[in-house]
Amino acid sequence: MSALIELKSVSRHYEQATGTVRAVDDISLSFFAGDFSVLAGSSGSGKTTLLNLIGGIDRPDPGEVLIDGISTHKKSESELANLRLQKIGFIFQSYNLLPVLTVYENVQFILQIRGIPNLSHADLILPVLKRLGLLELRDRFPSQLSGGQQQRVAIARAIVLKPAIVLADEPTANLDSETADNLLQLMQSLNQDDKVTFLFSSHDPEVIRRARTVIRLRDGKVIEIENR
Amino acid sequence: MLYFRLGFRNLWRNPLRSLISMAGIAGSVFLCCYLANIKIASYQSMIDMGVEGGPGHLVLYHPKWLIDREVHDLIPIDEALKVTEALKPFSKRSSHRLYIPALAQSPRNSEGVMVIGMELQKEILNHPLLQQKVLIAGTWDFLEGKQDALIGSGLAKKLGLGLGKKFVLMVQDKQNEIHSQLFRIQGIIETGLKDMDRNTVILPLKNAQSLLKIKDQIHETAILLNSIDDLQEAIKIAQSHTHHSLVYPWDEAIPQLVTMINLDKINGIVLAVFLFLIVGIGTVNSLCMSVMERTREFGVMRAIGTRQEKISLMVVMEGLVLSLLGIVIGLIFCTLLSLYTQKYGIDLSSQLKNIEIGNILLKPIIYTGWNFKAMGLISFSMLILGLFGSLYPAILANRVSPSEAMR
Ligand SMILES: Nc1ncnc2c1ncn2[C@@H]1O[C@H](COP(=O)(O)OP(=O)(O)OP(=O)(O)O)[C@@H](O)[C@H]1O
Ligand SMILES: [Mg+2]
User: Fold this and answer.
1) B370 and B299, same domain (yes or no)
2) Which domain covers residue B400, as residue numbers?
3) Residue A39: CB within 6 Å of ligand 1?
4) Which of A72, A86, A97, A98 best probes binding to B when mutated, by most B CB atoms within 10 angstroms?
5) If you ran DSSP here, which 8-state letter would residue A61 be given?
6) Nearest CA to ligand 1 atom 10
7) Structural domain for A143, as ranges
8) d(C-alpha B94, C-alpha B87), whole Å
9) Is A6 inside a domain boundary?
10) Which ligand does the CA of A217 lie closest to?
11) How many domains are there within chain A?
12) Using one digit for the tens of pLDDT, what is the confidence trace for B364-395?
């Protein structure tokens, strides 16, 4: 089976007045369809930086990132944007949603930038909203939702176009532990029942516990990979 | 549609800021359009006044009259009558006039004056400066052949003469000989035009001709048409009957008026440009602030794959919605007020005296017309300004890095 995402000796260094920060330091990893993996590590260990590289938001220097076999290295900004749009779903830590759009419209937004004809929008969106228990909330604005509900909308937007992989940077960081656990269970069931591939980051042991693969980072390096 | 909706809703996130920018746009559109409507009405009344009290829509003069206005630049009345006869189907009325520089003498004083010879019975009905209330003493009723004159109130004062008193007019005739004749003040007029009131003597045309020792000759035949649209055709017909005189359209006969109107238009445009620049800067500023407050949102959009052009488009849409709303509001206010002032006018005569421009007298009542061309142009420029004003904020927005979403 060929890898969905492949990192080949990937590094990302930041030049600071105090010296070079090796945010990601010579990491080689592969992710496959069906994975449910977590990047675990304390603050500053390089989780966000690595997710940026994997998702084509940032470019490695040096090293190579292949998304579905395509290298991000020599891509232009708009080619990268297109690659993200086609292949990757994103869930961020907070403020994921556009505040002026309703739940339905936030999910619709990604269909619109993909140029999918309006006619088929409802057919694509409604089943996903239903799956995530958001049907009743479809006309609410983000400010009228709880943090957990907002994150579910973010998941809906991330999976509606069935991307190759969904990347989530500390998706539960702003949630209380119960809501966080519910969200993780939901992601788990999407992974098992709907074959959605997830890679997320966390420093919360409760969250990390639920992942099938745990990749531990420290100071920009992978210190341990644990498969369960 | 998505971008339009986004633009519209984003504007209401900070309603006060948007309303202030919108008020600036609406206010300047309103001001410029309303001024344009005032101006078009005042130009029209200036032109009407200038035309009716002066050369009409077309006018016959001696070929040299407009150059030097010599008293000898006369045209034969036969020719003038032939032209007015030929133009009868097109014309409302015509006037034959003489303009004679003279010296008026009373026992007290002597003054340089302009003697205007006109067919008074006809002119008092139509001439905008010779309406009934202009006559402050005496009567209009002239018995031609008698030595009666109408004089301006300022002139009467300078000569120290009242109604019924006599004065002498001295002129130089065609042979350069000096003549003088005695006249009696039959009426005193006050047109409100200071120059005119200070130096005008009005005589019946026949009496003015005999003062100059001429017969059957005049300086000016002014013809007022039923419709200005017939001007070109009327000029052609008139030209086919003239040998000694030339035919001029009104704008060539009173070029000062045309120049003045054009200068005033340029003034208006300069004002509008400055106003628009200020409003434009305000709009740019408010859009920039709104963009910078939303860095994270733009980051999220970029991260999930929105292309930079689309982000720019969103911001441009916001600017366009803002200016469109402002323009519509401005136009609505302008239309409402214009409808009112078109009908009722705004009477400023308690604050202002009559406005004198050249030999045209305007009442201080503001009326408006409809300058649809200017209104369209103003709205269009504002829209273009909104478009250009949103370009810089649009660039700011699309420069936001997708990694902002991850912070
Ligand atoms: N834009 C940047 N400029 C300079 N240094 C940076 C930048 N982004 C990240 N770093 C540094 O790189 C290192 C890794 O940062 P990163 O954000 O990836 O950590 P993280 O594991 O996501 O931490 P957290 O759990 O706090 O989110 C840190 O030392 C950080 O200070
Ligand atoms: Mg992080």
Assistant:
1) yes
2) 2-50+258-405
3) no
4) A98
5) B
6) A23
7) 29-59+73-227
8) 10
9) no
10) 1
11) 1
12) 788 899 999 999 999 999 999 999 999 999 99
Residue carrying the six token digits 């086609």:
A86
Write out residues in chain A with pLDDT < 50, as ranges: none
Query: What pLDDT, in 10s, does the model give residues B32-62?
Result: 999 999 999 888 888 888 888 788 899 999 9
The CATH number of residue A92's host domain is 3.40.50.300
Chain-centroid distance, C-alpha A48: 10
Q: Assess whether B84 and B206 both reside in one domain.
A: yes
Contacts of B356 (CB under 8 A, 6+ apart): B192, B193, B194, B362
Is residue A18 assigned to a domain?
Answer: no
Q: Has residue B360 got a pLDDT over 80?
A: no
* B390 and B291 fall within a common domain: yes
The structure tokens 């509900």 sit at A149
Chain A residues closer than 8 Å to B307 by CB: 78, 81-82, 113
User: In A, residues 78-97, which contact B (CB 8 Å cutoff)?
Assistant: 78, 81-86, 88-90, 92-93, 95-97
In terms of domains, do B371 and B314 share one? yes
CB contact under 8 A, A77 and B308: yes
Strand pairing of A5-16 and A64-67?
Answer: antiparallel
User: Is B395's Cβ below 8 Å from some Cβ in A?
Assistant: no
pLDDT tops 70 at residue B271: yes
Chain B residues in contact with A200 (beta carbon < 8 A): none
pLDDT in tens, B179-235: 889 999 988 988 888 888 899 999 999 889 988 888 899 999 999 998 888 889 989
Which of B194, B215, B250 is the endpoint of a domain? B250
